[in-house]
Amino acid sequence: MEMIPVPYKKNVFFTDDSSVTIKGTPYLPFSMSPEMEVDFFTETEERSDIAFSFRVYFGKEVVMNFRKKGNWGQEMKSPAMPFRDGQPFELVISVKQQEFQVTVNGTPCYNFTHQLDPKTVRMILVWRDVSLTDVTPK
C-alpha cells in the first residue's frame, strides 16, 4: 500500500452531502502523545479562515473548532476516543446542511455546527503524527 506524504494538502469544493474519507494510522504509540489535525480552509492558503478544524490528541481527546479573521472560536472538546493505539483508522467527515458529521471506523462519533459556510472551503490539510494511505474528497 502506497503512503501519502504528510502534511497532505488538496484543493476541494464542497456542497451539501460532500465528504472526505481519510485512511491512516498514528505512527507513534499513544504513550508518546501523537496528534492528527484535519483543517478545512476557505482559501488555498494556510493563513485563511478555517471552516472546520478537527484535532485528535490520540488516547486523550478530540478538539473541534473554526477560525474566522485570524481568531479561533470556542473549542468543542470530546473525551470520546474511537481511535486505537497502533491501529489503522477510517475517518469520514461529511458536510450536512447544519453541521459537519464525523464517523470513525463506521461509527458516528462527533458533530460540529457550521460556523462558516462549508461551501466556501477550498483546501483540506491533513497533518501531524499520522501515516496516510488514502484521502478521498467526494
First-last Cα distance: 21 Å
User: What's the total number of strands?
Assistant: 12
Structural class: mainly beta
Q: What is the mean predicted local confidence, pLDDT?
A: 96
Uncertain runs with pLDDT below 50, 5 residues or more? Answer: none
Estimate percent helicity.
Answer: under 10%
- The dominant shape is globular
Strand residue percentage = over 45%
How would you describe this structure to a colleague?
The structure is a single chain. The chain has 138 residues and is mostly beta strands. The protein has strands spanning 8-11, 19-26, 35-41, 50-57, 61-68, 71-72, 76-78, 89-95, 99-104, 107-113, 123-128, 130-137. Strands 1, 3, 4, 5, 6, 7 and 11 form a seven-stranded antiparallel β-sheet that branches. The chain is globular, with a radius of gyration of 14 Å. The mean pLDDT is 96.
SSE arrangement:
Blueprint: E1 8-11, E2 19-26, E3 35-41, E4 50-57, E5 61-68, E6 71-72, E7 76-78, E8 89-95, E9 99-104, E10 107-113, E11 123-128, E12 130-137
